[in-house]
Amino acid sequence: MHSLKQIKQWVEQILNLFNPEGRGFDSFLDKVKEIVESNENRRLPKLPKGTRDFAKEQMAVREKAFSIIQNVFKRHGATALDTPVFELRETLMGKYGEDSKLVYDIADQGGELCSLRYDLTVPFARYVAMNGITSFKRYQIAKVYRRDNPSKGRYREFYQCDFDIAGLFEPMGPDFEIVKILTELLDELEIGDYEVKLNHRKLLDGMLEICGVPPEKFRTICSSIDKLDKQSFEQVKKEMVEEKGLSSEIADRIGNFVKEKGAPLELLSKLRQEGSEFLDNQSSREALDELSIMFEALERSKCSHRIVFDLSLARGLDYYTGVIFEAVCIGAEVGSIGAGGRYDNLIGMFGTKQVPAVGMSLGIERVFNIMEELNEKQKQVIRPTETQVLVSIMVDNKLAEAAGLVSQLWDAKINAEYLVSKRKEKHFNRAKESGIPWMVMVGEKELSGGFVTLKKLEKGSEEKEDQTCSRDSFVGELLKLLSC
Amino acid sequence: MHSLKQIKQWVEQILNLFNPEGRGFDSFLDKVKEIVESNENRRLPKLPKGTRDFAKEQMAVREKAFSIIQNVFKRHGATALDTPVFELRETLMGKYGEDSKLVYDIADQGGELCSLRYDLTVPFARYVAMNGITSFKRYQIAKVYRRDNPSKGRYREFYQCDFDIAGLFEPMGPDFEIVKILTELLDELEIGDYEVKLNHRKLLDGMLEICGVPPEKFRTICSSIDKLDKQSFEQVKKEMVEEKGLSSEIADRIGNFVKEKGAPLELLSKLRQEGSEFLDNQSSREALDELSIMFEALERSKCSHRIVFDLSLARGLDYYTGVIFEAVCIGAEVGSIGAGGRYDNLIGMFGTKQVPAVGMSLGIERVFNIMEELNEKQKQVIRPTETQVLVSIMVDNKLAEAAGLVSQLWDAKINAEYLVSKRKEKHFNRAKESGIPWMVMVGEKELSGGFVTLKKLEKGSEEKEDQTCSRDSFVGELLKLLSC
Q1: Last residue of a domain, one of B332, B350, B377
Q2: Whether residue A400 sits in one domain with residue A325
Q3: Which of A326, A344, A377 is the C-terminal boundary of a domain?
Q4: Least C-beta-crowded within 10 Å: which of A104, A301, B158, B179?
Q5: Over 80: is that where the pLDDT of B462 sits?
Q6: A415 plus A474 within the same structural domain
Q7: Is B49 part of any domain?
Q8: B56-105 pLDDT, tens digit each
Q9: What residues in B contact A129, CB-CB < 8 Å?
Q10: Which UniProt keyword terms apply here (chains A, B) (predicted)?
Q11: d(CA B291, CA B293)
Q12: Is A210 domain-assigned?
């Protein structure tokens, strides 16, 4: 052990070596204190990885999007469903295949084992099964949780906007309506040009059967096909042959089929031409008959031009049983912005009777990004608040004065804030920063005279003069001015 | 061990004893099968204890309440904040005292330790500290999580509606506004008569000092006082004397003070009368000065009649430093329906600089219960959907026909559903069940004639005749009819 004195001497020697001005040990202590203090200050609270806060302008963009989405959902006669953020672990088990490892578990603190929801589809299916429901059109806008890798830019908490129709209806009616809703959403959110790729699981199954793929390999070959939007056919073929044991000949036959894409009714009629192999296969024949009904409905509803019938669309999730679809932005690198399909066996997995269902999920985080980028490009200023009037008391210590005036505005349901300060510029800065269009000004003159002065801050086509009002009439006057 | 044959004989004998019709062993097996199957069906999925789903009518009530609340919050210039449902565990630690045991932890699956939020105040404080914010008016409507006892009727997941103002403003300005907001919320939610009890932590501290309570016992005696709304003074006195070691004399002095309650300005002037012990105590003198400014403002804003200045209000949470308040329904057994107060030291607990703050939280679950009860009493029928038009195709297999017509309505932003069925009563039942006011009917006649028939279903003062329209004009006609 060394004495403090000895250490002090060594530190002084070292410091003198590196610091020719040599202010010695006290200066060193000051520096240490400085570093410690700045670290103290830097010990800020943090967010969990992969999560975010949203405030002010960002929140305004989100609220606008949610309101558009909710209006579209309600327009189709759906009601909202709100489910708990966590479910019994057994409810989620066996639903997500390999992705189950991404499910967040709640700690076992005694009692039931629970997990955070991974999507909104399984809670919906659980709700329908639990309540013995046979028909339900519901929407849900809520956050879901996935222990994904934040370093890849993936979030661990993010919103999904889901619309599902469960129950027996007019054949292909719900399937048509779900795709129509997706186009309405993307149209009204104004996020640019897009297309909806569409295919049918039974058509894929038929296609694989025709190509000679053994049935037990249908699902795994589907996941290979699903990669065709990111990989070349040569890469996918390699996977099918080397990893999944198909013959090169079978893989090439698949390659020929999945090239097919085009306008719905056009490609459909090509696939149904005399001599088409699809007509000899029961599964694909059924699929083509269903698609025929659906495409006719989409054509009549005037959204057919948004749809691309694409035999290479396969979708990852195992539980789809019929129509599948995926919306992508044209010319943007954001990938899928919404997807869904028919899943007739999921609700029955809860041990109750089968209820057929079809649904879609909007990839709202990508939509937000696009909306924020567009706002930036168009240099749109987004007001985070909707305050219409600032009550400006330009005399100090007059809270009661402010309270009396601003409460009259609040009671008249006018969005208003107040400020008490004799520094005039504070008032104008505040109004300008928040984009507040009107001021109710009260200075010494107004105070003694018992009136207020109304000032318009936004530059209109005609410059407005300030206008004085009695304390009894200014609310009525402002209501008139605000409704102009 | 007995042979199967022997068991079969015994069972037959027993069955014959209880079942004189005696259909023997096969009938027994059938019964067993029936029981097993019905149990199979009863193995329904479940919700975690203490959680609920909300759908349809209940959801409509909630949405209405949220919309009222959000409008009030926005009227006061607040912006929404959205924070993750879980926080780093260290963020929540040391904030909730004894209640920390109610915090839900996320399982340790590698990575950071996280917990579900327990309230919205700590995430707000974390956000303000983390972003170095000095001034922020925010609201948040979101679910919080507590491992409370569901057998006591407590929920483990429930909504809170919080409004907080952080930053330095006009003295007592934010305190006044927060209480005003609480009265606006309760007025506009129309949940019956209520009062807001109000007190000041520094006044309580001064009072305890005057009574001779040692400072280290202030907080624990406060929690005893806080029980006075549920227990008699004798019970509370017993706790203060026997459990917390006060002398009987000191407890009685406290008893005299906490009896005081009344109209704000009235009781205030009594407590400030010459000779009042409160004037000699620094802490209570400061509190009375602050309350004076606040009560004047509340008086001028015309909500003073809702406030009861009550020296027995103490509030459980440790972090309050100034004004505290709690709203209760008059004549109802629901307890607190909203509460809050000033907490000037919480944000600084994150190692950054202090930012003073005051806020409130609305106990929205109780509000929902009251609203639902009122709806029931008034026999109000709540429509879960807002569908205005049902497109009724009364010919089978005509999805495309329906799609063409209903899409025109959707594109005109009319809330519409469709039904394809030749069974007339199905259409009318559907419209009646959902309370849909208009039908666009298409039967064989309309189909061949190329027109539609509009039918009004709600009985108005004048009975309306059905009216026919061309396929090009029915949307315009409906828009006119709906705006009447």
Answers
A1: B377
A2: no
A3: A377
A4: B158
A5: no
A6: yes
A7: no
A8: 888 989 999 999 999 999 999 999 999 999 999 999 988 887 788 999 99
A9: 44-45
A10: Aminoacyl-tRNA synthetase, ATP-binding, Ligase, Nucleotide-binding, Protein biosynthesis
A11: 5
A12: yes
**Whole-angstrom distance between the N-terminal and C-terminal Cα of chain B?**
83
- Give the CATH number, domain containing residue A470: 3.40.50.800
Co-location of A418 and A331 in the same domain = no
Do A137 and A215 fall within a single domain? yes
User: Measured between alpha carbons, how far is B393 from B400 in angstroms, rounded to an integer?
Assistant: 10
Q: Which residues of A touch B62 (CB under 8 A)?
A: 82
- Give the torsion through C-alpha atoms of A469, A473, A479, A482, to 10 deg: 0
Structural domain includes residue A97: yes
A76 touches chain B (CB under 8 A): yes
Share in percent of chain B as helix, strand, coil (round to 5): 50, 20, 35
pLDDT of residue A461: 44
Q: Are residues A340 and A403 in the same domain?
A: no
Same-domain status, A21 and A104: no
Which helix (H) or strand (E) segment holds residue B56: the answer is helix B56-75
Cα separation, A282 vs A267, whole angstroms: 19
What whole-number distance in Å separates Cα of residue A298 and Cα of residue A265? 10
Task: Clarify whether residues B210 and B134 are in a common domain.
Answer: yes
CATH code: domain of residue A78? 3.30.930.10
> Tokens in use for B19?
């079942």
Instruction: Please state the domain count of chain A.
Output: 3
Q: Which domain holds residue A359?
A: 56-377
Give all strands of the β-sheet with B323-329 in edge-to-edge order.
Answer: A54-55, B79-82, B136-145, B157-166, B357-362, B336-342, B323-329, B194-200, B307-310, B261-262
**Nearest Cβ partner of B301 from A86, A351, A407?**
A407
User: Has residue A413 been placed in a domain?
Assistant: yes
Q: Is the pLDDT assigned to residue B343 strictly greater than 70?
A: yes
Is residue A420 very low, low, confident or very high in pLDDT (cuts 50, 70, 90)?
very high
Cβ(A197)–Cβ(A228) under 8 Å?
no
What A442-446 contacts at long range (C-beta under 8 Å, 24+ apart), as own/partner pairs, is: A442/A391, A442/A392, A442/A393, A442/A394, A442/A395, A442/A398, A442/A401, A442/A405, A443/A394, A443/A395, A444/A394, A444/A395
Residues B91 and B138 both lie in one domain: yes
Average pLDDT value for residue range B286-297: 97
Q: Looking at the partner chain, which of A41, A415, A421 has a beta carbon nearest the beta carbon of B77?
A: A415
**Which position has the token pair 């800065």?**
A429
Tell me the DSSP string of B352-385: S----EEEEEE-HHHHHHHHHHHHHHTTPPPPS-
Q: CB A303 to CB B407 under 8 A?
A: yes
Q: At what angle do helices A248-258 and A218-225 cross, to 10 degrees?
A: 60
Q: Tell me which residue of B205, B207, B183, B225 sits closest to B313, measured CA to CA.
A: B225
Minimal Cβ distance to B53: which of A43, A81, A114: A81
Beta-carbon separation of B77 and A385 below 8 A: yes
